[in-house]
Structures are given as structure tokens and as C-alpha cells.
Amino acid sequence: MARAWTRVRANLRLSAGARLFDQWLAPIQLVDSEDDADVRLTLPSAFMTTWVKSHYADRLVHEFRAILPGIRSVEIDTAARVAPVEVVAAEPVPVAAPAPVAAAIEAAPAGERPALDPRLTFDRFVADPSNMVAMNAARALAQPGPVRFSPLFLHGGTGQGKTHLMNAIAHAFLAAHPDARVMLMSAERFMFEFVAAMRARDTFAFKAKLRGCDLLLIDDLQFIAGKDATQEEFFHTVNEIMAAGKRLVIAADRAPQALDGVEPRIVGRLASGLVADIRPSTPELRRAVLMRRIVDLPEVAVPDEVVDLLANRITSSIRELEGALTRVTAYAMLTGETIDLDFAQATLGDMLRGAQRRVTIDQIQKAVADHFELKPLDMLSARRARAVARPRQIAMYLAKRLTTRSLPEIGRKFGGRDHSTVIHAVRRIEELRDTDRDVEGAVRVLLGQLEG
Length: 452
Description:
Shape: globular
Helix content: 40-55%
Radius of gyration: 24 Å
CATH superfamily of the largest domain: P-loop containing nucleotide triphosphate hydrolases
CATH architecture of the largest domain: 3-Layer(aba) Sandwich
Oligomer: single chain
CATH class of the largest domain: Alpha Beta
Number of domains: 4
């Protein structure tokens, strides 16, 4: 049954997509059943149970029966809540919560444990220079003892490991503080629950739940952009958590200063802590991630040539890379075929073809020149005016990121420049992406255009 559940989860992740799966289906747990023909699944809250029943009950039955034809039913229930623990009043803090909210926080019992993914721990996080700072910062925040910094702001592209680190922080913190209040939620869920609390005229309970946390983790902050009421509540929540000396972790797809539509006072609060970025993955990291995941698949042999194919062709996201491996191994288990290069290419099909498009330096130079309304020859010229030099640096950065050309080759394509000039350009644009909205916006537009 456990093996069947592993396959069912893999199929659901492929069909539902990573975002929907992570939010609604990943928290599902398989529990023991008195009868092998009946499957019992649980979720951490009644709300999630109702949603999964209404949207995925029939699909779950179908997926289990495709693997185990003898399955009679699939039962979906809400897991039993964790018993409340005694609340210890906190010491006075410099900025106190409004009296009704403070009273609610003090009186509120500890809630149920967050719906963490058991696989997303520090031990299973594959690190290299692209994400080492973020991982070390996450470990430091989760350690017992005084809070060394808060908030921790993690930012990076989709599927690069932010959610993994947030789950890992929660796992480690709960291991050291079993009775702690920990909450992990998306900014979208924060907004949904806040709006629901306003409609129910019960915002005190919402405030108490969040501000009473010992560790609060909020993912995908960029989704509150332009939501004024939500941002107001988020700002006060951040203030209370920081004033109380509690731990706060925020994640987004870009640096605080590059969050368009987010109030400057929120940006200032977030930037006052530790900001750690996760850079795009290297081929070495992607290969290491695959090898780490393959260890969990003892029944399936994945040859090195298939690992190299995935690591070199699926480059946009670690999550997508893991999905490709899951798809190959799941299809092999379901069909009984042996995994080899031909099987992987046939199974992945469109996924590989979509990643196969090769971008040339000439194409990058033309795209950058068009974007900044320059002449293509400006990419090769010796002009040092910022209106020309900055776009040229962006073009070098994109050439390093999107092509396999060496630094000397890139330099030669930009008017015979030295490789050290290319290194300087790449590092400069990486720095500016964190601090300059115009540069960040231009890079994102060009990446979308060139990779599209």
C-alpha cells in the first residue's frame, strides 16, 4: 500500500501541477486501515479535507485502482488535532499589541502542527555555492537559543528550493521545541484567511493566531502586491513578531527592493533582517539533486546517461527537474520497462523539446539592443556611457546564463573584451537585480523573451 501511495502521489503531482499539489495534495497522509481493500487518507484540517473530497475523491479512487485493482474504497478524513499545551506568558516587549489582541494571544491554546512535507528537511537539501548562504542562514535561524536575526528573507526563482528550506526550518525548530507554535502559510492563504476573518467580524482570532507564533513562515510574498488591506495587516503582524523577538521567515521570487506594489515600509522591515538569495542552479547541482533523489528509488535503476540528459536539458527549475525524474521512474514502474536514454526521451517528449531551444549570443545582443532601443553595434563598441554600458553588461550576463560559451568566447563576441570584463559584468548585474527594479525588470522581460 505504501508503494502504491508513492506512485499515486507522483501521478497526482504530474497531473495537478507542482503549485496545486504542494498546496492541497502534498499534506495528505496514508494511515493504517483495518481492511487492505480500503484506503484511509487524512489531512490536517477540515477545510482541506472538504476541498480534496470535492475535487479529488474520484481521482484518488481511480489512481489507486490502476495500481491495486482490489481497492474497494478511499476514505478521506481530518487528522486528530494535537492536544493543546499550556501557554506561558511572554515577557513585556517594547511595542505591545493592542489590549484585545494581546489578551487573545495569551489565552489562545497552541494550534495543530503545520502541514509540513516530511521529505523537505535539511538532510535532504542539496547545497552548492548557488544556495549555500540561504541554507546556512536557514539552519542558523532554526537553532535553539536567542534569535540571531529576524526576519530571514529568502528569494529566488520558482522551484529553486525556497519552499524546501522553509519546511526544513519548521522541522528543525519543532524538533528542538516540540511545544512551540509554528505556522507555515502562503501569502495567498494569509490574504484569504484575513478576508474571511473580516467578513466574519473575528479579526482578533486571526491576529492572535499569527502573532502568537514562535515561528511564522510566509511563502510567495509577491502575491500581496497591490492588496492594501492585506498589506496593512501583514505590516502589523511583522512588527509584532519582530518586537516580541520571535522568528519570522519570508520568501518571494525577488529581493525586497524589487517587490513592485508592496509598501515601502514593509520593504524596509523585510530588508532590516538577513536577505539571502538562491541563484539559478548549476549543472553540477542538478546532477547532485537527481542522484540524491534516486537513492530513494531502490527498485528503479537510472543510468548515468539519463541523469546527464535531465541535468543538462531541464534547467529552469529544480522542481521541474524532480518532476521529470518522477515521470520517468513512474512510467517505468507502471509499464515494467527498463530506463535507458531512448525510454527517457520518449517519456519526457515535449518537456525535453521545450528545453531544447538554444539561444545564441547574436540573438541575445539583438534582443537587448531592441529592448533598450540601441543599435546592435553598440554591444560591440567601446562606448562607456551608462545608457550603452549597462545594456551591454546585461547582454553579457544573459550570454553567461543562457549559453554554454566560455567567458573568453563571450568576451570576444562583445568586441574582443577580456574574460575579466565579462566576470565583472555578470557580478554587477547579479548585484543590481537585488537592488535596482529597472534592471531586474529588464532582465526578467529579456529572459522570458529569449527562453519563451
